[in-house]
């Protein structure tokens, strides 16, 4: 088993006033040759956007872009004709493919919105752009991991152009769970959303990131009431 630990306070940080963003991997002005990606996981940004502010229309190409709101409401618009609100409990995916332009704004003027923006390098390029968004509420399980993304169109959650599986978990203190990887050449990047988790003996706190590969199964133990995001991705792509 190989591992890599990214403590929360070692992430890149950019505070633009209206946007407070933490970068687990190199992004924009934060560049670290040792933290370019974890396999096909290229970007993991922890963003807080002020009331009524946001990202104006901007382009993307050949990237799987996933948004997971943690608090508040995010207004999305794109040149594919989608105009939606993404809220806590939702997951959104946009396959940029041959090119897409979109904007994201905090829908509310009385509270900030906090969300994860995640980029996964696809296994197919120049695909027709597409958009999907679902609520994960019906997928949620008590003290168990539940899948929110996979490569399979008919599977639970949204799907991506990559052999990637994302799972969320809400765990009570002292709960233990096991995660079995889907493919032998994949790795898992765990991101602690709340609480405290121990994975294969490594103690992790809120917003710590921990990557594991060359492993078949990992054990997860909550040492506090906790919420975790697991991102399984190919290590070679």
UniProtKB/TrEMBL annotation:
One of its GO terms (molecular function) is metal ion binding. Keywords: Iron, Metal-binding. PANTHER family: QUERCETIN 2,3-DIOXYGENASE. Residues 148-233 form the Quercetin 2,3-dioxygenase C-terminal cupin domain. InterPro entries: Pirin, Pirin_N_dom, Quercetinase_C, RmlC-like_jellyroll, RmlC_Cupin_sf. Residues 11-120 form the Pirin N-terminal domain. SUPFAM superfamilies: RmlC-like cupins. It comes from the Bacteria. Its cofactor is Fe cation. It comes from Cellulophaga fucicola. Fe cation binds at residues 58, 60, 102, 104. Binds 1 Fe cation per subunit. This is Pirin family protein. Belongs to the pirin family. It holds the Pfam family Pirin_C_2.
């Amino acid at each position: 088993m190989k591992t890599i630990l990214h403590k929360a306070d070692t992430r890149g940080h950019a505070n633009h006033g209206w946007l407070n963003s933490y970068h687990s991997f190199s992004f924009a002005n934060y560049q670290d040759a040792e933290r370019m990606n974890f396999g096909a996981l290229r970007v993991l940004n922890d963003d807080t956007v002020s009331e009524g502010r946001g990202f104006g229309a901007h382009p993307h190409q050949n990237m799987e872009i996933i948004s997971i709101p943690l608090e508040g409401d995010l207004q999305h618009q794109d040149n594919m004709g989608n105009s939606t609100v993404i809220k806590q409990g939702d997951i959104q995916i946009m396959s940029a493919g041959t090119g897409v332009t979109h904007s994201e704004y905090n829908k509310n003027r009385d509270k900030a919105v906090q969300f994860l923006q995640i980029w996964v390098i696809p296994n197919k390029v120049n695909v027709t752009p597409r958009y999907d968004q679902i609520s994960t509420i019906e997928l949620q399980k008590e003290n168990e991991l539940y899948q929110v993304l996979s490569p399979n169109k008919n599977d639970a959650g949204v799907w991506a152009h990559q052999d990637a599986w994302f799972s969320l978990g809400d765990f009570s203190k002292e709960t233990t769970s096991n995660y079995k990887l889907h493919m032998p050449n994949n790795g898992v990047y765990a991101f602690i959303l709340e609480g405290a988790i121990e994975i294969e003996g490594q103690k992790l706190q809120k917003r710590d990131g921990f990557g594991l590969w060359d492993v078949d199964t990992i054990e997860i133990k909550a040492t506090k009431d906790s919420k975790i995001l697991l991102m399984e991705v190919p290590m070679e792509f």
